[in-house]
């Protein structure tokens, strides 16, 4: 199942909601969007350019269609997200 821009918008809204309520990020996202795979890391761990940038995070698209998970910049191939968290300033 490919992701859509509207799904990404909803994910970003949920990220903001979870941060405000101080709930755990990935479990909260997985319970709201069970069809999407979520991974979390620090932005400094990512060499690739993000698909989207938020205030405190970057979103990278992942493709699980092959044996291994790969990053992609094509939304129509993406079925998951890496949430790369930016350091708080």
How is this structure best described in words?
It contains two helices and five strands. It is α+β, with helices and mostly antiparallel strands. It has one domain. Strands 1, 2, 3, 4 and 5 form a five-stranded mixed beta sheet that branches. Helix 1 packs across helix 2. The longest helix has 17 residues. The chain is globular. The termini are far apart.
Helix and strand string, N-terminal first? HHEEEEE
Computed over alpha carbons, the radius of gyration is: 12 Å
Q: N-to-C terminal Cα separation, in Å?
A: 36 Å
Q: Would you tell me the structural class of the helices and strands?
A: alpha+beta
Query: What gross morphology would you assign?
Result: globular
Quick description:
28% of the residues lie in helices and 27% in strands. With 89 residues, it is of the alpha+beta class. The protein has one domain (5-85).
Which key features would you list for this structure?
single chain, 5-stranded mixed beta sheet, 89 residues, alpha+beta, 2 helices
Layout: helices, strands, pairs:
Blueprint: H1 5-21, H2 25-32, E1 37-42, E2 52-53, E3 57-63, E4 70-72, E5 80-85
Parallel strand pairs: 1-5
Antiparallel strand pairs: 2-3, 3-4, 3-5
Helix pairs in contact: 1-2
């Amino acid at each position: 199942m490919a992701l859509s821009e509207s799904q990404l918008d909803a994910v970003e809204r949920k990220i903001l909601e979870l941060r405000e309520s101080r709930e755990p990020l990935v479990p909260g996202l997985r319970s709201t969007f069970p069809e999407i795979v979520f991974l979390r890391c620090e932005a400094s761990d990512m060499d690739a350019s993000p698909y989207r940038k938020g205030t405190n995070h970057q979103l990278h698209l992942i493709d699980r269609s092959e044996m291994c998970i790969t990053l992609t910049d094509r939304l129509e191939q993406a079925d998951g997200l890496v949430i790369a968290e930016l350091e708080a300033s």
